[in-house]
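Worked example 2:
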Amino acid sequence: MTMHDTAPMLRIALAQDLANEILLLATIGAPMSKVETAFTNAGGKIISEHDDGSCYADHLGVQEYHTSQPALAIYLWAETALEAARDMQMKDPLTLFTALHRDTKLDALVRVIRQYCNEGLGTFVPPQDHCHAPATHLFEIDFLGIHATGFGEFEAARNWRKAAISTQNSEAA
């Protein structure tokens, strides 16, 4: 399965996590500024196109419009994201990704993880050449809350997958 096959599902799973956080903030009565900060810190964008205050909340392929306030557009965005996740019977992003790529060959796994990281969903850092500062001097992957290293990119991806599966197994126990 390629990244293009799994990308919409992973984006909706990530959007589901953020939407749950936003709706939790709403239920505890958090100020609208805190809701906006949570949304933008996660990479969301609030796009105002008109002087009348109307705006779009846009993140992870989900876009929602509101006529008056950014926070209300964000709430509508969260509801739309949760509805899409329910329609897709979505799991959390890590469970989804590992289920889809448990048996993916390492070269393809490296390519998929790198592409998601290039989209801003994680980091894939090669060793720094001629680095005189303290560093691991290893390939490093930080994706979906799992951090792994390796002497090569294949080893880093293999270690990432092992850590992701191990994390899931320990959470299930």
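The two ends are 29 Å apart (CA to CA). The first strand starts at residue 45 and ends at 48.
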